[in-house]
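Posted in: Protein Modeling Q&A

I'm a second-year student putting together a small comparison for a lab meeting, and my supervisor asked me to include a predicted structure for Glycosyl transferase family 2. I've never done this before, so apologies if this is the wrong subforum. The sequence is pasted below exactly as I got it from our records. If anyone can share the structure token output, I'd also love a short note on what stands out.
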Amino acid sequence: MRAAVSYYGPMEKEPHISVIVPVYNEEKNIPLLFSRLASVMNALPVSYEIIAVDDGSGDASFDALMRVASKDSHVNVIRFKRNFGQTAALAAGIDHARGDTIVTIDSDLENDPADIPRLLEKIDEGYEVVSGWRQGRWAGALFTRRLPSIVANMIISAVTGVSLHDYGCTLKAYRSDVIKGVKLYGEMHRFIPAYAAWQGGRVAEIPVTHSPRKHGKSNYGFGRVFRVLLDLVVVVFMHRYMNRPMHFFGMWGLASLSFGFLVGCIAITLRIFVGLHLIDTPLPVLTALLIIVGIQLVLFGVIGEMIMRTYYESQNRRPYTIKESTIEH
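Accepted answer (user: helix_wrangler)
Welcome! Here is the predicted structure, written out as tokens:
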């Protein structure tokens, strides 16, 4: 992912809060959004920065962002060479964020910046992730939007074990040490609360204001729901088996081998005691197929274990995270 980064004005050494705003074709919303953001953030007794990521907009969004950045030294702008998607925009903002706390917010004015202080209050209570729960979002759209959203959030909550009403809400606050190490692809930014919980972090959800879009067109649709669910399969698989691939492939490999030997025993028994000509049955082929597949799956597990160990050793990564320690080095 290649992007051009521009900074305007003097930059504070260590901002406490980084606000990340992914932008895509929102030129008409930018002035009001950043005016509201500045009003809210300036009222807080902490230093901050705002990172706007132009995700290859086809309108004049970048020009609008540059006008804002030229007047406000807190605002930094990243511009993509083309449209990479919201997850990539958030990832770029997170990579460049310097704050101890990271806040993400949509640029379409559907999220209210006035809710940010409430998110930060929850972070100060000791939570690693605080997610917004949009109120009154699907009024009048029960079957076309509200019901699919409810079902999708129920599925995600059940599969991940982290219960949230609104995984899709961009308005969230994170401790930077929780989010910095997460690699985001596809629609996986939605699952950061689950990542945090799996690492032992505390996750909270609070109701936030939802406003109807004033300008531009929403990109929400059924296609996105299906993409999110497909990414969910990948996320859960990686969480459960990335550190132990043999547990997955080995389990299915042993099951295939066991069924292969069982079918083989049945075939031999039928040949000896019944006199059945095995060439007239699919049993020999099925036996061989099950045994070969079982061996292959076990070998996949072995290869996966070798790749996983090589990855951790080459990256000097550890299979654990530490919250606090009294050990001095």
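A couple of things worth pointing out for your meeting: The mean pLDDT is 84. The first strand starts at residue 3 and ends at 7.
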